Fold this protein.
Amino acid sequence: MKIEPLEDRVVVEPLEAEEVTKGGIVLPDTAKERPQEGKVVAVGPGKMLETGERAKPAVKKGDTVVYAKYGGMEIEVDGKEYLILRESDILAVVE
Amino acid sequence: MKIEPLEDRVVVEPLEAEEVTKGGIVLPDTAKERPQEGKVVAVGPGKMLETGERAKPAVKKGDTVVYAKYGGMEIEVDGKEYLILRESDILAVVE
Amino acid sequence: MKIEPLEDRVVVEPLEAEEVTKGGIVLPDTAKERPQEGKVVAVGPGKMLETGERAKPAVKKGDTVVYAKYGGMEIEVDGKEYLILRESDILAVVE
Amino acid sequence: MKIEPLEDRVVVEPLEAEEVTKGGIVLPDTAKERPQEGKVVAVGPGKMLETGERAKPAVKKGDTVVYAKYGGMEIEVDGKEYLILRESDILAVVE
Amino acid sequence: MKIEPLEDRVVVEPLEAEEVTKGGIVLPDTAKERPQEGKVVAVGPGKMLETGERAKPAVKKGDTVVYAKYGGMEIEVDGKEYLILRESDILAVVE
Amino acid sequence: MKIEPLEDRVVVEPLEAEEVTKGGIVLPDTAKERPQEGKVVAVGPGKMLETGERAKPAVKKGDTVVYAKYGGMEIEVDGKEYLILRESDILAVVE
Amino acid sequence: MKIEPLEDRVVVEPLEAEEVTKGGIVLPDTAKERPQEGKVVAVGPGKMLETGERAKPAVKKGDTVVYAKYGGMEIEVDGKEYLILRESDILAVVE
């Protein structure tokens, strides 16, 4: 199943704690307000500006991102858990 | 009866749990904050921008969409239940 | 008495439950949050945009509309009950 | 004494219940949320738009208007009670 | 001491009840929500618009104005009480 | 140490009550909501407008200003107390 | 690991109390509402304006800044604590 987010929304696959540790970022389970790490799996066309044009998305499919979890909605696609967020909930791209 | 939504509103026919499962998305009845899946049956002319022009709608009749239920209003047309939402309550188009 | 709404306001004559049923939409009296059906009897010149121009109203006199009741104010003209709403409280035109 | 409202403000002389009845609109004293009827006695130059120009007022001196009372401030000029409101609190002009 | 308000701020000298009565407006001390009358003693350069230009102030030094008191801040200059308000808190100019 | 405020921020050195009295403004310590007097020691480049340009600051280094204290943040530089405020918290320049 | 903040976000490495003292700013641990000092380690591309262009960031990598802590989110990268803030939470650059 293919999922195409609208506007500036992004579908993110949360990274497991173990994978996260490899990347160098440690995010203890108890830290509620800490941002989380995930992989971008789908990106919307971008936010519409008042001019009617769309702002180019700042992330792309495959990017590893740090995001604020509270802004997203959980969705289960083909038995896997994803998060749909707005690009503004994504804090940074990590490499 | 024909229904023509105003502005960026969209009329959606909610998909039953069984149909949803076929599409690959499982949305347990108990998950209140989870987005839901539905079929677009009518689309408004689009949101008016400050320039006076309308933004082109991002969904079209027949699209299967995932939406946040809390933003919509229920309406019963010819004995069937529908939801009128704003396009901003639609998270993604699924295929 | 003639009534001319200002801005994007619309005067609506609420349709009785019986009339509604004929149109195919059933709106039980107990459903508080459900939109209601009515007939447009007067339309304002449209909302003023930041450019100083007015947005063309999306409904016209005689249209049957579905509206969210909570946004309007009740008014009694020549012994009859009407509702003055903003166009943004009108969800759809029905035919 | 002459009073010149600023911006999109309008000075309204509330109409007494008896006068109102003549006009066809009955506004029971107990109806708190109902709009009220009054006569426009002074009109400001209009709301300033972001362009620096002023929007032309939609009402003029002498108009009979229906307004939402909660938005206005009472003022007593030469022993008479008036209301200063913004044009956005005026719902309609009646004839 | 000279005082130059910033933006669309205005320095107003409140008029005493006795003076007010002469002007025709009676503002009982008990009326908390009633607007008050005062004399403009200093006017700022005007509110900056999004274009970077300033909106021309609608009042000038010497004007007698009616204002909503709650929006202002009291200041004592050379032993005298003044109020600094934004122009939007001034309802009308009286003559 | 040099401090360069960002945007429309201004660094102010609060004036002591004694100094204030000389300037003609008396600000009793008990008056919490009263604006306070201070000297501008550093000014940011100005607020960015939606056009991408910056609005020219309305105060300059050395100005004596009256400001609303609640909007600022206290900072101690080289053992001295300062306040960082936004220009919109400055009510007036006094001379 | 490299971290690239989005929009007008900035990654800051908080300065320890001792280092802070050297810089001349004393920030007692008990002062909750006081701004804090840190070093900029990464800067986003800048906030997108309504025109679709980005505002040039006002800080650069290596800058020592004073920031309001409450607006940021803590993140641990390679075992070190950082803060991701928006540029609007940065009050000033210190030298």
About this structure: Helices of chain E lie at 17-23. Chain E touches chain D at residues 23-27, 31, 33-35, 49-51, 53, 55, 58-59, 66, 68, 87-88, 90-95 (CB under 8 Å). Chain E has one domain: 9-27+34-65+72-94. The radius of gyration of chain E is 14 Å.
